[in-house]
């Protein structure tokens, strides 16, 4: 039980640090989001993480 709480706490801290980064989308990213918009919150979050990490 204690390990699962620590794991949840670690995941939430890491997610907060990723969302705290402010990223200004480039022209290409804006075009991609217009032509091929994310289909749901999971894909939107995935694109955000990719852009934050520079992939």
Notes on the structure:
With 55 residues, the chain is mainly α. Helix content is 75%, strand content 0%. The protein has 3 helices and no strands. It has helices at 2-20, 27-35, 41-53. The longest helix is centred in the N-terminal third of the chain and has 19 residues, at 2-20. It is elongated, with a radius of gyration of 14 Å. The model has no long low-confidence stretch (mean pLDDT 77).
By DSSP, the count of extended strands is: 0
* Structural class category: mainly alpha
Form type? elongated
**Beta-strand percent range:** under 5%
Percent helix: over 70%
Tell me the number of helical segments per DSSP (H or I, 4 or more residues long).
3
Low-confidence parts lasting 5 or more residues at pLDDT below 50?
A: none
Largest sheet composition: none
Multimer state: single chain
Q: In angstroms, what separates the terminal alpha carbons?
A: 35 Å
């Amino acid at each position: 039980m204690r390990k699962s709480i620590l794991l949840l706490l670690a995941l939430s801290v890491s997610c907060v640090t990723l969302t705290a980064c402010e990223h200004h989308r480039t022209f290409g990213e804006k075009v991609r989001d217009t032509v091929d918009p994310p289909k749901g919150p999971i894909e939107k979050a995935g694109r955000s993480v990719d852009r934050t990490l520079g992939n």
